[in-house]
Amino acid sequence: MTTPLTTRPRALVRALGGPRYAMALAVDSLGTGLLRPFLLLYGMTVLELSAPATGTAMAVGVVVGLGCMPAVGRWLDRGARSTVVAASMLVRVVGVALLLATPVGQAAPFAAAALLLGVGNQAWPAAHAALVATVSHGRERDAALAAARALRNAGLGAGALIATVGLAGGAPALRAMAATTGLACLAAAALTWSVRLHARPAAAPAGEDLPAGPAPRMGGLLAANVIYVFCLNVPEIALPLVLVTQLHASPVWSAAIFVANTVLVVTLQVPVTVLMSRFPRRTVLALSGVVLAVSYLGFLAATQYGRGWGAPAVAAVSVVCTIGEILYAGSATALVTALAPAHVLGRALARFEVSTGFGLAVSPAAITALAPHGPAALWGGLAGATLLAAGAVATGTDRGSPAGDRPARAGSGAVAAE
């Protein structure tokens, strides 16, 4: 696959699933950005719930969302593609509707709404990756996954920016943004459903719904992924915590770093993924861990400047951290789709999403627990753990997986309208 082919917008849209699916991704991410970053604020401001009650409900939603992933994986392995993606969006529509119907002061309906939103948010990544892996192959698929991430980050960032401006309107504005999120998810689900993509399970024995054979275990890769995922919460949690509580810097620095991270991901995710396509995916994933570990050590050094130069130094190092994040995002899911045989792609992606969701769930607690013990404990601990994870990725082999880092077999099944 040549570089010009994988970087042309029209080719990327086709490899992503076509114009309607690309539009669905844009609409869904824009709507999600209006509510997802502010769900805690919605519970506390609009519904007048306590912070612990709101946070607990959201955490339970994430955990239950992870619990549904085995069922999602088996559904995907029966050949469903656009149906599963659309279903994940529709579950969020129901969650938003329940959220809007929740009376002030009622924690139980809010918890139910958060649960549905969590299920939809957890099911979407695996379903989306399976859909892309069905319509594109090899390195073209890697570029398509990267393009989807760039598009989604742009939509989430734009939605969050609009919501931030609208927060001045108070509770009515938050309700309006939630309603808009529901409508956006509904429109995105309709667009996705219209794609009507289905992959016939490969090599299914006669009289059986699913082909025989387990999904690759990928134990080392999944364990390493839990550590890698911490990088996604560094700009949102670790850096604001360090800048405000340790360096006593203005919150403007945290906002600027978050915006810079979003812009870099949107502009560089596809070019960097294509540039690194000359190397094995496992090598790139291990390299991303090294880059992330170096950035964590850079944050440790930057905090030694204290007030004055500390905040600019942290901002500069954050660029290195974002490059590591881009390398990780461009290789991790692509490696899973390359390792998994076609008939167990859904289950493999579901397991990978469980490890990702678990990492995202525990990283805030781990970061906030390490931070009070000083920069060395926080950044040194993260650097050491990430280097160990990178070593495990570089040297690991996955039982039950195709040997080596071959082009994906996930799209080998025939594709048909549902």
TrEMBL record:
Pfam families attached to this UniProt entry: MFS_1
Keywords: Cell membrane, Membrane, Transmembrane, Transmembrane helix, Transport
Membrane topology: Multi-pass membrane protein
Annotated region (Disordered), positions in chain: 397-418
Places the protein is found: Cell membrane
Source superkingdom: Bacteria
SUPFAM superfamilies: MFS general substrate transporter (SSF103473)
Transmembrane segments: 21-43, 49-72, 84-104, 110-133, 154-171, 177-199, 220-243, 255-276, 283-302, 314-340, 352-371, 377-396
Keyword Cell membrane: yes
The name this protein goes by in its record: MFS transporter
Organism of provenance: Streptomyces pactum
Lineage of the species this protein comes from: Bacteria, Bacillati, Actinomycetota, Actinomycetes, Kitasatosporales
